[in-house]
Amino acid sequence: MAVKSKYRGQGLGHQLLGEFENRCRKNGVEWINMYALENKQTLNFYKSMGYGFGEKEREIIKLLNVKRFKDLKI
After folding, report:
1. Is residue 44 within 8 Å of 13, Cβ to Cβ?
2. What is the pLDDT of residues 26-54, one digit of tens each?
3. What CA–CA distance (Å, rounded) separates 61 from 65?
4. Is residue 8 part of a domain?
5. Which one of 1, 3, 4, 51 has the largest count of C-beta atoms within 10 Å of its C-beta?
6. Closest CA to 16 of 30, 3, 31
7. How many CB atoms are closer than 10 A to CB 50?
8. Which range of residues forms the domain containing residue 70?
9. What mean pLDDT, rounded, does the chain reach?
10. CA 23 to CA 70: how far, in whole Å?
């Protein structure tokens, strides 16, 4: 996902990613794992949306069903 630079700062990225997450939840997706460009602006965007960083370079992760993962005995 990307937003052209002239449209950034208007909340479009937050809206797009929020809608994507909502659709994932409705379809039973429990987590999102993806890779992002490694630059400060991009990583700060995903961090502001509640994503954490994985072990692999540029990997970002968000648990959508936190309760389920808390119940797991790992």
Report:
1. no
2. 999 998 999 988 888 888 999 999 999 88
3. 12
4. no
5. 51
6. 3
7. 11
8. 30-74
9. 86
10. 22
